[in-house]
Each structure stands twice: as C-alpha cells, then as structure tokens.
Amino acid sequence: MKIEDVRKNAFAMPLNNPAFPRGPYKFYNREFVILSYRTDPARMRAFVPEPLEVVGDIVHYEFIRMPDSTGFGDYTESGQVIPVRFTDKDGTVQEGGFVHAMYLDDEGPIAGGREIWGFPKKLATPKVCHENETLVCTLHFGSVLCATGTMGYKHRELDHGPLLKSLARPNFMIKIIPHVDCTPRICELVRYHAEDVTVKGAWSGPGALQLFEHALCDVAQLPVYEVVSAIHYVTDLTLGLGEVVYDYLAKE
User: Which of 2, 8, 121, 251 is catalytic?
Assistant: First the structure.
C-alpha cells in the first residue's frame, strides 16, 4: 500500500477493516427514557472540565434504545448528561449538556463514538424493556447491576415544542487520543448537535432511579437525591459530526 493510499483511507481503525463506516449516522425510532434528578453540585463541578460551567444541580440519566441506525446497527445505551454553560471565543453563551458517562453493548458505536467525537463510551449491558404498564431500564457492568430506572408507561402526552428546543441544544465531551508514550496527543473539548430531528411521540409519567457503586462503572458518583422528572420519547434524528471548541494542549 502506498503512502498516499494510507492517507486517503485512514479515517478509522483498523486501517484495512474499519470498525465502523464513515458518518454522518441516521437513527430511526430511537427511543429515550430520561430520568432527571437532583445531586451534589460539588461533585458535578469535580467532573465537569473548564471552560464549561455547571448549571444547577440536575443530572439527566438516559437509557436509549436504538433499533435501527445506519452503520451502527441495533444497540442500547445508558449514561449521564450534566447541564452546562459554554462561552465561545466570540462571547456567545450556549446552554447544553456535558456527556459524563456512556455505557453500551455494541463495538461499532463504542469505537466510532470514542474515535470521532470523544464520547466516553465503555462496554456494558444496558436494557430498555416494556413490562405491562411500566418501562423498566437497567444497566449491568458484567454481572453487576449498576442502575435501575422505572417509569409509568405513557401517562401524559407532552408538547413536542419544548422537547425539540432541548434537543437542538449542543452537547459537549472531552476527546482524548493518547500518544504512543501514553501522554495525550489529542485533548479537546468537542461540541455536536442532533440534526434533522423528528419527534414521533413524547410522554411523561412517574419515575424512579437507583444507582449502585461499582469500581469501573461510575454512574453512582453522582448520587440520586430526588427524581424531578421522567420523560419517554421516540425520534428519528441524525447524529451530527462534531467540532473542536477548545484545545487543552494548545499554548495560551
């Protein structure tokens, strides 16, 4: 293989058999169960990196069922998003979310999410199930139960307007690619948006959430003080490719 061929084809690893195809990626009938809860603001600030600022004391715990996604197939995801504020170089202030933790059950989106955007993805076993009148969501890391969320099934229909507005907000994460000596070669704050969003249905209802401590699964580091809302919705959307908004390795 010629050097120019390497440059042309090198968008993902392995070079000759990439773990995922090129994006962008479209999701159909993507099902969310989001349990929002109060936690310790001091702990939130310990996990959220500057230049992001924590907003309030709410964490969104997400269980996401993705039955049909281009390139990534059929998988399930679970994790936490912390509401934050970001001030851009031009002084523009944006409200969005910092992706604190993500656990999922499929190699392709784990590799793609980490390599392209910097999503903090790790292998685990999240599930979203419909049990009679209850949505039952769990996260296992190996054989250990780390999270359980439950919600009443479609109790109250929601107006799509506020939900679409919240889905239009950016999300942020830290992309880290190590050098061969284990020092960081890339360390960047990345911003992305959900695009072409169609909400097919949205509901609220009673919700409950329990998080359990685990040495390698960190969801319980933001403890549940009070569940303040539970929403369930189904969407089609495109996962927009990201942009670098801050380089931690650049010299000031």
Answer: 121
Identity at 67, one-letter amino acid code = P
Decide if 216 contacts 156 (C-beta within 8 A): no
173 strand-pairing partners: 190
Give the 3-state secondary structure percentages of the chain, helix then strand then coil, rounded to 5.
15, 55, 30
Buried b (16+ CB within 10 A) or exposed e, 111-148: bbbbbbbbbbbbebbbebeeeeeebbbbbbbeeeebbe
Tell me, yes or no, if 127 is annotated catalytic. Answer: no
* Helix (H) or strand (E) segment spanning residue 5: helix 3-9
Which pLDDT tens digit goes with each residue over 146-204?
Answer: 999 999 999 999 999 999 999 999 999 999 999 999 999 999 999 999 999 999 999 99
pLDDT at residue number 251? 80
Query: Coil, helix or strand for 93?
Result: strand
For the chain, which ranges sit under pLDDT 50?
Answer: none
How far apart are the C-alpha atoms of 34 and 200, rounded to whole Å? 16
What DSSP assignment string belongs to 227-248? EEEEEEEEEEEEE---EEEEET
Q: Residues in the chain, how many?
A: 252
CA distances from 25 to 71, 128, 165 (A): 7, 22, 21
Q: Contact at 8 Å (CB) between 152 and 205?
A: yes
**Which residue ranges form the domains of the chain, and what is each CATH number?**
22-244 (2.40.400.10)
Cα separation, 86 vs 81, whole angstroms: 15
Residue 106: what are its φ and ψ, rounded to 5°? -145, 130
